[in-house]
Amino acid sequence: MFVKNAWYCAGWDKDLSLGRDGLLARRIAGESLVLYRRPDAAVVAMEDRCCHRHAPLSLGRKEGDSIRCMYHGMKFGPDGRCTEIPGMSRIPEKACVRTYPVVERDNWIWVWMGEPAKADPALICEAIGPGDPAWNLRLGYVRVDTNYRQEIANLADLSHVAWVHSQTLGGSDAWSNIKPRHELTERGIDTRYCVRRTPPPSFARHLFPEGALFDIQVHVRMSVPCNFILHFSVHEVGSATEGPTNGRLVLDTFSSQAVTPRDAHSCDYYYSWGCSRATDMPGLTDLMHEANNDAFLEDKAMLEGQYQRMRERPDAPSVDIVHDAGPGKLLWVLDRLLKAEARAIEIVPA
Amino acid sequence: MFVKNAWYCAGWDKDLSLGRDGLLARRIAGESLVLYRRPDAAVVAMEDRCCHRHAPLSLGRKEGDSIRCMYHGMKFGPDGRCTEIPGMSRIPEKACVRTYPVVERDNWIWVWMGEPAKADPALICEAIGPGDPAWNLRLGYVRVDTNYRQEIANLADLSHVAWVHSQTLGGSDAWSNIKPRHELTERGIDTRYCVRRTPPPSFARHLFPEGALFDIQVHVRMSVPCNFILHFSVHEVGSATEGPTNGRLVLDTFSSQAVTPRDAHSCDYYYSWGCSRATDMPGLTDLMHEANNDAFLEDKAMLEGQYQRMRERPDAPSVDIVHDAGPGKLLWVLDRLLKAEARAIEIVPA
Amino acid sequence: MFVKNAWYCAGWDKDLSLGRDGLLARRIAGESLVLYRRPDAAVVAMEDRCCHRHAPLSLGRKEGDSIRCMYHGMKFGPDGRCTEIPGMSRIPEKACVRTYPVVERDNWIWVWMGEPAKADPALICEAIGPGDPAWNLRLGYVRVDTNYRQEIANLADLSHVAWVHSQTLGGSDAWSNIKPRHELTERGIDTRYCVRRTPPPSFARHLFPEGALFDIQVHVRMSVPCNFILHFSVHEVGSATEGPTNGRLVLDTFSSQAVTPRDAHSCDYYYSWGCSRATDMPGLTDLMHEANNDAFLEDKAMLEGQYQRMRERPDAPSVDIVHDAGPGKLLWVLDRLLKAEARAIEIVPA
Fold it and tell me: Nearest C-alpha of chain C: how many angstroms from A94?
């Protein structure tokens, strides 16, 4: 169901304050976690379950670099070992809580849900964070009640922009006719294409004269499950009809996004979007942010409707179309990882 | 569970406008449908599921006599065949969506959920629609969260009027002592009786002098699943003690009703009720409509409470009483149809 | 799952008026009941299910000492026998509804869910009711969505007061270091201990000078499932370091509590709390009542969080600590009763 040896986004760095009650409860890939920041700012991720009687540690209290369960007062260090049981002098060997490797990068918090020894930060998708001085980024979040396979399939095929987002990010059928080139990477796909001679998106059409056209150069890197970056740069219409546009750059935009499955039926979707400071103008990033918030609610409505239909009749047949190439490749990578993990567990049973 | 070779009510004609977004999502007998009106006013009913990736077509858009899925833009004609896949020139053979036979009659929309070849409009229960100039009818709707067998059992035994509706449609124990004559028909029952010497119903008692009494002649035709008409005519008290009343007609009322199971646990209940224009007076049909709306919420509360108890203890025994004859006959007809369909599927496997 | 041969609390006497609509629907140990008061004030408890078609009798109407189902008008005497079926002259033998033994004591209504012949009122936990002139008691109620085993484990170990209730009933770690003496009784445990040299609880700290200390003498009697009384008496600090305090009595408080499982996932929790009139002062019992209401919501939050974690991963291991002795003994008594009932059913199959 879930790839465990993978980094999952648990939110933005701003979600974890140093405050005494700065405890963040998250559900990731079917497990309940609590995250908190130590006095030295390092982030701890633990199973959100006291080893005594399973009370949520997220209802607890931070004490120095430790967390105290507020049911019976058991205290756990940042390595998950119990260091105090009020009323007892001896701490049982087994009194500890599972911890998870954590990396903070690009203002994101990443948690490794599998074997700690395999937690290689090189597997985290490169991104641009809101702290990057070259970009003016806004942050957003939406919960989507679907299986994450549908969510990442949605994101791996932007031809849906023409339809789902016709009133926001879309506004022409140019998106229907894109010819993406998807290259397989170690854990995902790398996709490039140019949307040529397209009018401005619906949300920005009023800013331009009737008939204005642009080339949009797109570069998407996705790695399962499921972090990805979108680099959209808007150009004047160029003369090239194949390969990248050769029109002059007008606006450079960048989005970093992460889909974290909560469980089989629900995802957390984190996203940033904005313009390079070199090409931004006052109000533009905010306009784009409003449009994105609207658009991701359009996705949510479509994806939740789709998932309802899928659950009503799980064995209904489906017809493939040309735009399925991206989702197909990405889910193929995901399935390959899932199978490799299942095999590894078979060989070395837990 | 559900008879498939049957007409199910999908609502009133007024529920389907010619507007661009006039898409009606309905759940009928365990299937999800979308209905829309073509420019020539004909109604199309389709499975509410794009054949590509199962997105709901009810989140789509009408284009001429077609419907376009707004996930990836696939367009389907009124026969369910895909006629356009944006970005592709060839349409795969299998790209089509199931459609359902539809008949509009008596201002009602009827959908056939089984084999199209067997869709015989003669099987639709005769009714009087709100468009009939001889009657002054009002329309109502209530969703009831129960299995439809309980809903139709409720409707097939009007002795409950004395109790469930004591504050509205009832008001005397005359309804407890009715002796209905139920005749089996091809797909239901035909029931006649006279409620003799009964005071006016609670909702209308203030209109009459103390002690006023009437005969109410009742004729109910029910056909599974589950359309029915009720003809109540109010007469001055007559001298007959058996058979129809021979009192003078005072008020002629008519109700057409339909129960459409959504799934095993929920029904849509559509109803009209009103007076003949020959016997109506200003305000009377509205008074009756208010009382019916109240009464059907009384039914809803009772039926939902009953269903909760049934689910809590499905094997609890039950005692039969004299008033179960009508429900028993109707459910017998239903079970006969269900068994016949099950046998047919066994012989010719799908 | 549930001990059936046991008294369960169905609420306070004040919950059952003599009013015509004074029908109380309760769910107890997985069964649905209706309770009502006869004209002579005696309480009747019946299965909340008409024997005809399972309609809830709690939607019915009181008539003298009987209850009438308002679906088809069947009337049942206080012994559950049907005495009237409108429209029928003969009442079928089997037309009756199960009744349950009821005892009213200490302003509480107790219902026996098992074999009536075994309903021994001596098994009801002794309590002090709000009607007792020697005590000034307040009543409260909270629904907790957890399995009742977790609820009674919570109540059998008051070391949690130090943590869960640190802002209300707790306020010192004295509660973490209690050394309760649990004595097994026929159907529960009897627990005594002294909390020595403890500051006033958080909710009352402002009433005393800095550094004020007290001895709290605790006596708890619990019987499964699950009624219990807590007798807390507050004393000046005494010189005894073992056994009961020998300090002068300052305040005598008493709480009677009952946990009634609704089903596997939910409990009703009824409680009273207050001071002896001999030691009370104006406003004190109200202050304590407010603190208790707050505290029991703190328990609710912790218990519901714990139960969510337990359902997410039912096989997660757990580590025992010294404070588990009370809950362990109480659950041992419960399991012994559950096993005895299971054996009895095996020998004499129903």
Answer: 7
Give A281: exposed, middle or buried? Use CB within 10 Å, 0-12, 13-18, 19+. Answer: exposed
How many residues comprise chain C? 350
Q: What is the ipTM of this complex?
A: 0.93
State the sign of the Cα–Cα–Cα–Cα dihedral C51, C55, C57, C62. negative
Closest by Cα among B226, B229, B250, B256 to B337: B226
Answer positive or negative: Cα dihedral of C44, C47, C50, C56. Answer: positive
Please, which residues have CB within 8 angstroms of residue B339's CB and are 6 or more apart in sequence?
Answer: none
Tokens of A128: 């641009």
By mean pLDDT, which of A99-113, A117-131, A335-349 is the weakest? A335-349
* B29 and A CB contact within 8 Å: no
CB-based burial label for C129 (10 Å; 0-12, 13-18, 19+)? middle
Could you state, in chain order, the average pLDDT of each consecutive group of 10 residues for chain C (350 residues)?
A: 96 93 96 97 98 98 97 98 96 97 96 97 91 96 97 95 96 88 93 94 94 96 90 96 95 96 97 96 94 97 98 96 95 95 74
Nearest CA in chain B to C30: B312
Residue C141 one-letter amino acid: Y
Nearest to B13 by CA among B4, B22, B21, B3: B22
Q: Is the distance from CB of A73 to CB of A82 less than 8 angstroms?
A: no
Residue type at A179 in one-letter notation? K
Q: Which domains are assigned to chain A?
A: 7-123 (2.102.10.10), 135-336 (3.90.380.10)
The strand order across the sheet containing A266-276 reads A135-144, A266-276, A249-263, A227-236, A214-223, A188-198, A181-185
Q: What is the pLDDT of residues B215-269, one digit of tens each?
A: 999 999 999 888 889 999 999 999 999 999 999 999 999 999 999 999 999 999 9
* 8 Å CB contact of C72 and B323: yes
Pair C168, C287: CB distance under 8 Å: no
Closest CA to A227 of A253, A257, A255: A257
Size of the A and C interface in Cβ pairs below 8 Å: 82
- What DSSP string describes C298-314? HHHHHHHHHHHHHHHST
